[in-house]
Structures are given as C-alpha cells and as structure tokens.
Design goal:
This protein has one domain: Rossmann fold (3-Layer(aba) Sandwich), CATH 3.40.50.720. The protein has ten helices and seven strands. The protein is globular, with a radius of gyration of 20 Å.
Amino acid sequence: MLCLCAETGRSLKHVVISGVSTGIGFGLAQELCRQGYRVFGTIRDASLETRLREQLGERFVPLLLDVTDRAAIDRAAETVARETGGAGLFGLVNNAGISDTGPLANISPDIVRKHLEVNVMGVFNMTQAFLPLLRKSDAGRPGRVVNISSVSGKIAYPFMGAYAASKFALEAMSDSWRRELLVYGVDVIVIEPGSIDTPIWDKANHIRTSFGDTDYAPLFQYVDLVKDNRRNAQPVSRVADRVIKGLTAAKPKTRYALPDKWLLYWILPRLLPDRLLDRIIYKVLAMNRVKV
C-alpha cells in the first residue's frame, strides 16, 4: 500500500528517488526535503515507513516497491501522476543498487544476474515508467534523470566483476537514454562516486566468509585495506550536492566523477595501458600463480 502525504500543489518541485532507506538515497532525500522539494522515495520494507516519515518530514512520500517489479513501478508512476496533480516531475534519481564482491570464477550466476536485474534493469524500469511525467514537467523545463553509477563503471577491479559489469552497462545505457531523450528535452546525468561512507562498508567481510575455501582466499587481505580506506571515504552529502547540481544547473555536465583519490583511483587507472595496470594490481594484491 502506498502512503502519501496530504500536501499538494503545482508550486512544488517533485522528485522521485529509488532506494531511500539508507546511504546515498536517504541523504539525498533528506537534503531535497530540507530545500523544499517534495520527494517520492522508494522502499522495499514497509516497516521502515514510519521511521522515514519521522526523519524526513511531511514533504516525503514513501513508495513501497522493488525496482525489479515492473508492475509495482507502473502502479507507483500512476500514483505519483495523480498526487502531483499533472505537474509532472522535476527529476528522477535512480539510486537503488546492490554490490556483492567475489571472484568471477566462483561467484554464483544468480548473484551476477541479480546485479544486472537491480542495477541495470531497475534503472530501465524506473526511467521508462516515469518518462511521461518527466516530459510534462511544469517547472519551466522538462524533468531530468540522474543515474547513480560508480567509478567502477569505468574501472573494473578484481572481485568487483558483477558490480562493475552492471555499472559499465549503466554507463552505456545512460548515454543511449540521453541521446534518445534529446527529442523531449529530458537530460540524463551520471554521478560516479568512489568510496562513500555508507552502511555498504559493513559487508566487507562477506568475501572472506563466502569464498574462503577458494584459490583466491590468500588475496582477501585486501579486505583490511578496504576497511582502512573507510576513514578516507567521502560523506554522502558530497554525492547529494552533485545530484542536486545535476538536477538544477542550467547546463549540467553529462557526468560528475567523485573518486576519493583523483590521481590514484581515477586518472592513472584510465590513462595507463591495460597490461601495466594489470601488473600493478597483481603486485598490490601480492598475487602468485596458482599451481594446478
């Protein structure tokens, strides 16, 4: 059941955000509500509804759905259309996503498939369903789509294959969406964060427990490095700032990269020849050839 706040009116700017329970989605919803936007945020767990209403206030409207459930998304789009009173959407932020680590040689095909279903098809479902509301926005211009990608959408590191594959696909799909939607004036902007201080860090030990009996087990020392890097992780507010810029700037960039270390994690990996980057990663992880 969708629970909606009573506040309506064409003067409001309406934004839909997928995945607002925690992390980037919650932080963005909080900031947009503070700035006076009316935020429709998707959640999968109905038990979170009360907490989110209390934390985000009367401008927040929870939408109970899973981004892989197209029928539920279509129903939500109808509800948002009704609740906005024909005003359309100022923006759609595709934030919902998953990230599970694991070597591709051992990871379950179901996990890879789930990444594609959530991180790629989820964005497709949301964008297609809400496009009519973006086209008819009365905010002075058509609405915009902001897709939350990752630095992993450009650089694929070991044990991040399923996630990186989904984000590479999202990057490509975003380009196609942007060029196709030129005919409607609907822009598509991509945000590419690096390490962000969200609860996803709490899952770092997953790879050790799930793949500790594989040939890759000795390499999972990198988990400790990842945990140490949390101290340098960027605040959610930095991503929210770029999303809002993408939604509001007169001439937004097509992409906003937010690596935590520009030279080390963004510039060099994209400039170095593939074989040289491979050797560097090999040494950093202290890899050794497995004897067969």
